[in-house]
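Here is one chain, start to finish.
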Amino acid sequence: MGNTSALGANEEAVRRVAAWIRDSRQTVVLTGSGMSTESGIPDFRSQGGLWARVDPRRVATVEALEANYPEVRDFCRKRIEEIKRNRPHRGHEILAGWEHDGRVRAVATQNIGGFHQIAGSRTVHELHGSLRRFHCRECGRPAAEEEFLDGRPCRHCRGRLRPDVVMFGELLPVDVWDAVVAAMHAADLVLVIGTSLEVYPVNQLPALSQGRRVLINLEPTDQQALFDEVLLGKAGEVLSAIDREM
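Its structure:
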């Protein structure tokens, strides 16, 4: 459908995307794990990703919460430590700045580290939840991180605590999904950053927009025909190049 350019190989493509952002009234951003890897957070599905080293059935399913609860907590503890050791990168800050300037309406993210909010983004839809929040499986009331990591029961009903993330086999949160679908329908420009769009149903979202679509990713994907422009490179570097043209 559109053009594919490696960063540095086609400055005109960068200028073109910058112009689209300037002219847009409803830019919506969708980010995946490639946005977080530049902050030091490993991805899940690549050849060297997390699921190549850890069996997700043991630590990331509803069944695991029952059968392997200590192992789930230990896995989450390590992920939380990774998140706390690292910070948002320049790309996160640029997106937050564009929102502040009225150029970005919303960010939808598959990431669970909260880096968009730390960088200053205000309208963030967390499709897969957040590893910075916890709640009781039984009564749904919020819980503190240390309560979950210490293995304490819910202080209200004595139920088992869990992270506020979407496990394998669970549906995405309906309110978040509906908000993102509405944003995509209204968007006249969609920026998809750091995802190969392999996971259903999130991979269906960009096609909901009737506007222009831009993919920023480290590697080519099978979904490139959907996009008007594809910029290959690290998210932070590509966004910085676009920002310089704004």
